[in-house]
Each structure stands twice: as C-alpha cells, then as structure tokens.
Design brief:
With 278 residues, the protein is of the alpha/beta class. It is 36% helix and 21% strand. The termini are far apart.
C-alpha cells in the first residue's frame, strides 16, 4: 500500500506576529510533517514569535519585502516533489480537525481527475463564507460578473434584498460562489490562496507564483495551471476563519490596477476579451 503523501503547512507572513502566536499552536496540535513560516521581511516581532516555538517551526525569511506571491515561492526549495503544501495565511484560524489527514484524503480523491490544487473554505467570524473563495477566469466578463457576488455579500444581512439580487442576476455570475447557499465541492478556475492545498511537484512545475505580481497572483497561477491541463477544485472540507488583517493599506487599489494591466500584457488582450485561452 502506498504511503500517504506528507503534508506541510506553509504560513505566508508579513507583520502579523500576534496572529502567528495564535495560529501556530493550532497547527502544532495537528499532524503536519513540517510547519514553515514564510516571512516577507517583517518589521514587527514576527521573527521573535516564531523563535518562541524552537525547532517545531522553521522560519524561512526573505531579506527584502517582495510581495505575497514571491513570499509563497520560498517554500519551493524546502519541500520534496511528493509533498502536499497547505498554504494558510497568518491571519487565519484553522477550524478543521486533523487537517493533514483530511488534506490527504481529498487530494487522493481528486488526483485521478487531474486536480493539482484544491481551495478550502474561507469564512468570516460570523460564519458567512467569503465571496472570493474561488472565481471565474481572468477576463473582461469575469471581472464584470465578480461584482455580483460582491453585491450579494454586501447585502447578506438583508435576506430579502440579497436573495432577490441573487435570484435575478446571480445566474450570470458563473464561476463565482453563491454566498447565500451552503458551500459544496465544485470545479473552480482560481482559488483563494489563503487556504489552499497544492501538490509540490505541480507548484514547482509552473515556477510558483509570478514574483512580479503583488495582486491577482491567484488568477495568474490558475491561467498557467490551466495551460498545462492541471485542474483546480474547491472543497469546503478544510475550513478556516479569516480575521482580515490588511497589511496592504492604501497600496491595495494601486497594486490591483497595475496587476490587471500586467496580466493583460502577459496573457494577451484577446484572451482577456474572450475569456478563454487564445
């Protein structure tokens, strides 16, 4: 009988020392092969917090701040080819019991279907799922329809209004979650990188995230995986609570606009307009 694939936890971090202190014990209580903190040149006490856990947690630190995608790529040199990487952001709270075993089971389940990356469920503290757990292909239409789940989510505390919006225009937002329904497994285009399982050989084969991007790196990764025929799956079996610590501040909108222009140049205007590989 084949040995279960080892599962490592990789925590991308930038200036979230206090949240690391809360998240790391949750991971240590489970059966990960290794736990890594990928630090993007934090200026707070993150390094001191990681050192509190001694050899149980390995710190991999960038000498300069390079952005979330390039930071995640630091894991590539520290895992073997047959390893399942669980990326879990530092401001997440892990809610699944025995996550490595769950991860092994669902990875094995989807492997025969050509799935190389699996996104888990990201929710808020009130239990509502985030509208960006997964999304449609990066395209003019995909970008436009992303406003629908965002709008429904904004009105989720007004059930009649949000339900009406979802019923009338929600069906055109294909590829996006219906945040009013219970999350169920489904094939997805891009995945929320804050709670994602990816096979290390797959991640290495595409070179990880594009280090030039400080936003929309999940969409770019999905395009490159899709070109290689590697499928992506959403499965709510691995659950986290997102505590929404924003370290991008006023740079968020600027980076998103810059990333959009970069992706159009990189993958082609025709592809962006058509929404399919050209």
């Amino acid at each position: 009988m084949a040995q279960p694939i080892p599962v490592v936890a990789a925590i991308p971090n930038y200036n979230m020392g206090e949240h690391l202190r809360e998240l790391i014990p949750l991971l240590l209580a489970q059966r990960y092969e290794r736990i890594f903190v990928l630090d993007d040149a934090s200026t707070d006490h993150s390094v001191d917090v990681v050192n509190e856990f001694g050899g149980d947690v390995r710190l991999v630190r960038s000498p300069e701040n390079r952005g979330a995608g390039a930071n995640r790529n630091q894991i590539i040199d520290h895992v073997g080819d047959r390893t399942l990487i669980h990326f879990v952001d530092a401001d997440m709270e892990l809610k699944t019991t025995d996550t490595p075993a769950v991860a092994q089971e669902i990875a094995e389940r989807y492997l025969g279907q050509g799935v190389g990356a699996i996104g888990g469920l990201v929710s808020r503290a009130d239990g509502s799922q985030e509208y960006c757990n997964y999304g449609a292909a990066f395209s003019l239409w995909g970008n436009f329809t992303s406003n629908i789940p965002r709008l429904v989510d904004h009105w989720r505390h007004q059930p009649r209004l949000s339900g009406t919006v979802q019923r009338l225009i929600g069906p055109i937002a294909t590829g996006w979650p219906n945040v009013l329904d219970e999350p169920i497994p489904r094939r997805a285009y891009w995945l929320h990188e804050g709670n994602m399982l990816v096979h290390s050989d797959v991640f290495k084969a595409v070179g990880g995230y594009d280090p030039a991007l400080r936003s929309h790196e999940a969409q770019d990764l999905a395009i490159r995986l899709d070109k290689k025929g590697i499928k992506r799956q959403f499965d709510p079996s691995v659950r986290v609570i997102h505590h929404h610590i924003d370290v991008r501040g006023n740079n968020r909108a600027k980076w998103e606009h810059k990333a959009t222009r970069y992706l159009i140049r990189k993958h082609g205007v025709l592809r962006f307009i058509a929404g399919t590989a050209i």
